[in-house]
Automatic annotation (TrEMBL):
Domain called Transglutaminase-like: residue spans: 361-434
Lineage, highest ranks first: Bacteria, Candidatus Walliibacteriota
Signal peptide region: 1-32
Protein name as annotated: DUF3857 domain-containing protein
Family annotation (InterPro entries): DUF3857 (IPR024618), Papain-like_cys_pep_sf (IPR038765), Transglutaminase-like (IPR002931)
Amino acid sequence: MIKIKNKTGVKFFAAAAPAVSALILFFLCAGAAHSMSVTMKDGAVYKARMAEGMENYLSVKKGATEEVISISEVKTIDFSDEAQKSPADAEIGTAAVEIPADIKSILEQVPDKGKFPNAGGYIIKDEEVYTLNADGTYKVRSHYIFKIFEDRAVDSNIILGYAFERESAKIIMGRTIQPDGKVSNLNPADIKEGDMFRGAQYYSNTHKILSATLPDVKKGSIIEYVIEMNIFKPIIEGYFCPAVYFAAGEPKRLCRVEIRAPKGKKLYWTAKNFDTIYDANFDILKAVKDPKITETDKETVYLFEVNDMPEFISEPYMPAYKDALPYIQFSSYENWDKIYEWFYRNFDKHVEEVSEDMKKKVEEITKDCKNTEEKIAAIYHYIQQQNRYISIKGDLVASLTGHGAKRTFDNKYGDCVDKAILMTAMLKIAGVESYPTLINAGGPQWAIEMPHLDLNHSISLVRYDSKEIFLDCTSQDSRFPFFRNDDHGRYNMVPQLKKLIKADMPLSVQKNFRRVVINKDGGISVTGKREFGGAFEHFIRMMNKSLKESEIKDRYKQRLNVTLPGVDLKKIEYTDLMDLSKQVVETVEYDAPDAVIVADDLILFAVPGYGFDFNEVSLKDRKYPIDYQYLTRTENTFEFKIPEGYMVKYTPKKFEVDNKYIKFSAAYETKDDGTIVFSDHFERRERVVDIKDYASYKSGLESIARYAGEKLVIEKIK
């Protein structure tokens, strides 16, 4: 860090040599030979001037001799000696120190905060330059300038992850600018490097983290940095697939992406989501659906540039960014062949690495199975529970293509790719066709029009008895044939079949039965059971399997107390949560005082604990579709035993909502013995609700919520 001070007392903290040297040069052009004093890092103070013809170097006077030193060796620079200059010279120097030209330019680009009341900050510049070399290597240089409006936007960290066997990373410069023009520069000595380590489940000895903390960052500051990634060994020969994103959570003054390729090198791209722009504020992006293409003697340049970009404001249950906002996906490949072939080679050899112990284990866990489906389930559940999820990777290839099946089996741990390979190998031993796949789980849909590796996960494709299903061994709580809901409806790359196959959308079903005895004093006694399937079963296992019985009971009671204060929970039990071969069933018994309204000869009550909280339609209007991620069906049956001497006076009428997205039906039936039976059925038919249908969809859900709150009335027989 270098501190610069002039006679006015204005200080600048600098380590960005070009800005500092330009400032010093200005003083020297206007002043005497040795018009500054420098304090070295060891505390020594010397007269100094700019070294002639050498940028970023000073000529320091030490006694009778002069020595040329780098600016980085200097702790502070003091221009107080300028007091001896003429008034005109001093005025020029002071003006320059107060706001250097580059700082002034940045400050002038900060808008009035009132123009962006929802913004935490303002992106002054967001620039990326991709440079593809003739040998297939490439680099990415990013320049980012951000004004901080609110405390929630304060972030002083710069973090870069890279695979050092294939990539290098640099933090070129970083600085913090205050509203008064004061600059605090990042000291290169404060840039740190460390191993990639994310908790107990991920470690890589070939991935590194480069990090730094910008100094003096606070509300009102402007941060600026330039970083560079150099990919000197692409993961697959010729792989170059940049994506161009425009919108962000904060408004932007300038968004600029430049892709430079050797002249004659053909690149391919697809423009996604430009035909349906949900937020009219982003109509300005239509102008960059296609790049501006220019050529030099050696390069073809693809340019995307947008000014005055509004901020992106998210909505509850909206789709992922890349499913909702325009972006561009580039690829150096015309088709998927090279990607298929690369994964095929690695997957194939890993699947073939089996052992006698593996064969014995497959025979052991499938010996009592009566059919192929039972064999698949037995192997699936074994890997889920007996092979822990831990990722230890020696290189980037292993991160994407995993290790041999034998190694994962012997170690009893592996990551998603390792477990998918092991699944395929063990199923193959059992005579079942299976393949490891690659998928972008929980995120946006893979833009399959352009060959590229937009993936974060690996699961398994299984074929048997004319069926084709997907299974995910990383989940310890999904009972066959269910697989993690964040895999549903997403494209899988199956390299060994040279195909992209979309996963299905299995239905998650929950069935609930309750018998409710209504007492004359206003209390109720409830007994019943609930059967879980799919995602419902997954969540129940995950939430409760590690809890003590007392903890399960306390949490269940807390939930009941929300609508039934003072509840006495007598029993809550689950079938064995660790046995994936059995469906989870809940058995419950409780009493609740004052659960109904007693008014003279009348008793009013609603279905206990029954209601809907549709947060997805809480907005009056939406700009983006609703994305539920997975499909569900719930069925409820409540039998009400009314007190002796009472008769049914009123029950709500049968109610239905039936459209392309949901089917809901509910009805009350009165039996001859006075028992009232309530039953409902609620099925979600589509994962995504189109925005054009939002008004009618919202109305339908709100009518369901109102219906669920309606009360029944019974009356004392006179």
